Amino acid sequence: MKLRNILNPAVITTDVKGADKESVIKELLDLLVEAREIPSDKTEQVYEDLMEREKKMSTGIQHGVAIPHAKTKVVKNLVACIGIKRDGVDFAALDGEPSRIFIMTLSPVDRVGPHVQFLAEISMVIKEESARKALLEARTEKDVLAVFGL
Amino acid sequence: MAHEMMLLALQFGVILVSTKLVGWLFSQKLNQPKVLGELVAGMIIGPYVLGAIPLGALGPLFPAVEGTVPVSPELYGIATIGSIFLLFNSGLETDLPTFLKFSGKATVVGLGGVVLSFLLGAEATVLLHSEVHSIMDPEALFLGTICTATSIGITARILGETKKISTPEGVTILAAAVLDDVISIILLSVVVGVASVELGGGTIAWSSIGFVALKAVGFWALCMVVGILSAPYLTKGMKRLESLALITELSFGLALLLAGLSEMAGLAMIIGAYIAGLSFSQTDVAHEITERIKNVSDFFVPVFFAVMGMMVDFSALKSVLVFGIIFSIVAFLGKLLGCGLPALAIGFNAKGAFRIGAGMLPRGEVTLIVAGIGLASGAIGPDLFGVAVMTMLLASVAAPPLLITAFKGGSGYRKELVSSTEDDLVTIALELPSYRAADFVRKSLADSFYQEGFFIKRVEGTRQVWQVRKDDMIFMMKVKDTLLEISGKRENEAFVRLMMVETMVDFKEFAASLKSLDQNDMMGAGLLMNMFAQTDK
C-alpha cells in the first residue's frame, strides 16, 4: 500500500484544539470534510460509527498514540487523517497516558478494506520513539509527512 | 466420425469406471498406490487383453491400432490432456522454499541418483539388448532416463503416515525428489531432441547434443524465471476478476499454452505444464488452484494411467522378461547407491544413507511419461516399454515395505541438524476461557483475514494449524487447547495485532449479545414442542 496515496497535507493538522475524546474526533472529521474526503452532511453518521467503535474498546493505545477508526457506509475507499496535540487529551488509553498523536481511519463496510494494512504500516513508523518525538515537534503538515518518509 | 465418437464415449466410460474401482481396491484393500490400480485396470481392459474381444456388432471396444501407440488418436489425446493436468498439478504442489532450503544436500543426493541411475540403466540396455550398441542409441537414452525420475507421491505418503517428513532424511528425500523430477524432465527434453535426430536418419554429433541440451536448459530456465517472476503479478491481475474459479481456469489455459509452446520448441508438452504449475506454486492462490484443478483432473489423469497400462503388450514382454527383472534390479541399485553413497558424504550414517536410498526408489508418473513419449515417437518398441512399466511396478511395490523397515530405529544423521535460528519470527498468543471459545475466535479471525483478501488453508497432516497467506505475507495460526497462537514475521506483527484486536472487539460484542438470550430454555422447548404440533393436518 502506498501511504502517499492516502496521506497529503490537507488531511493533516499539527494543532488539534479539542480537550476531550469527542471534540478531538469531531475536529478531525471537520478536517476530512474540508479536504473533501467526506460530505459535510454525513459527519454526524460517521461520528456515530466512530463512537460506536470507541464504546466497544478505546482506541487510545500506548505512548500517546490513538487510532480512532471505523467501518462506515459513507466512504467508498480508505480515508485517513493525522492530528497532533502536544499537550495531550485523555483518550482512555491502555497505559493511562494522555494521547497526543491521532491517526484516524475510515474504511468502507462492504469491501475488503485495506485499513488494517494502512494502520500496520503507520505503526511500523511510529513505534520508534524518535518518530513520535519528531511528530510532536512538527510545526507544519510537511514536517509530519516527512516523518513517514513522504 | 459418429462411430469413432461413440466408441470414444464408450471407451472413456469404461476407463473411468474400471480405473476408479480398481484404484479403490488397490488403495483401500491392498494398501498400494491408487496409480498402480489404474495402470493395472488399463492393462486388463486394454487392446492386448479384454479390449480385444469383439462385442457383437460393435467389434472390439479397444481395437489394437496400427502404429506406435495401440490406442486411437482420440483416446490418446484425452490421455495427453491427462498428463498435462498431472504435471501442472505436480508443479503446483512443489514445495519450492523447502527445496531451496535443503537444496545443497539434496543436490548432492539427487544428482548422484540421477547420474548413476542413468548410466547404469543405459549401460544395462546396451549389455542386455542385442540391437542396442551404444548408450547414445535412442533405446539406451530413453531407458536411462526412465531410471532417473523418483515418484515422490509414494514416499511422501509413507513419510507422512509415519511422521518422518521433517527428519533430516525425510526433507532431503523430498527435496532431492523434486530435483530428480526437474533433472529428469530436462534430460527428457535432451533425449527427445537427440532421438528425433537419430530416428530421422541423421547421426548426432557431440556438438549438436550440446546444442540440444543448451536449448532444453535455456527454454527451461527462461520459462522458469519468467514464470516465477510474473506469476504473482498475473494472479494479482486475475484477482480483480473476483472469481477463484476463473483464476483456476485461466491458469490452466496458460498451462496448455505453455505446453504447446514447449512442444513447438522441440521439448515435451509436459515440461511446459510443469513449469506453469511451478510458477503458480509460489503465489497465494496456489492452494485454491490446486483444489479446483483436482476436481477436473480426477477425470482425466486416470485415463492417462489406463492408456499407459493399455500400451503394455504382454506378448512382447515374454521375450524381455529376464531383461526386465535384471533391469529393475539395476534401477534399484542406481538409486540405492547413487543417492545413498553421496548421503554418507554429507553427514548421514549408514542407516540414514539406506533410508535416503530406499526413499528414492519408487518410480511413477514421470517414468511412465518418459516411456510413453519414447513409445509414441518410435524411439523404443513395445518390448522396452513393457520393461519400463515392469520397473515402475516392481519399484513401487517393493519400496513401501522397504521404507517402513528402513525408518525403524534411531537417528540417521551423524550430528544433530541445527535448526535455523528464526530471530525475526514472533508469536502472539491469546488465552481464552475455553477451547470452544478459542476455536470460535480462530474462525472469526480466519473470516477477518479472508475479508482482507487472505487465503486460509489447513496445514497438511495437522488438525489445528492453518496457513494464512496473502502475497508475501504469511502467518501460521494454531489452536492449542484454550490458546490461540499466531506466528509470523516481525515486520507484520502490528498487522496481526490489529487484526486480533478487531476480532476480539467483535467477539466481546457477540458474547454480550448472548446474555440477552435468557429465554434459552424456552427456545429449546419451543423447538421440541413444534415437532408434535402438526399432527392434525
Keywords:
heterodimer; A: 150 residues; alpha/beta; 6 helices; 19% strand; B: 537 residues; mainly alpha; Na+/H+ antiporter like fold; Double Stranded RNA Binding Domain; 2 domains; five-stranded antiparallel sheet; 68% helix
Could you explain how this protein is built, in words?
The complex is a heterodimer of chains A (150) and B (537). Chain A has a single domain, classed as Mannitol-specific EII, Chain A. Helix content of chain A is 40%, strand content 19%. Chain A has 6 helices and 5 strands; from the N terminus they run H-E-H-H-E-E-E-E-H-H-H. In chain A, helix 2 (21-34) runs antiparallel to helix 3 (43-56). By secondary structure, chain B is mostly helical. The termini of chain B are far apart.
Offer a concise description of the structure.
The complex is a heterodimer of chains A (150) and B (537). By secondary structure, chain A is an alpha/beta fold.
Number of domains of chain B: 2
Radius of gyration of chain B: 27 Å
* Total tally of structural domains of chain A: 1
Largest sheet of chain B: 5 strands, antiparallel
User: Main sheet of chain B: which strands, in order across?
Assistant: 1-5-4-3-2
Query: Biggest interface pair, residues each?
Result: A-B, 13 and 15 residues
Number of strands of chain A: 5
Could you tell me the CATH topology label of the largest domain in chain B.
Na+/H+ antiporter like fold
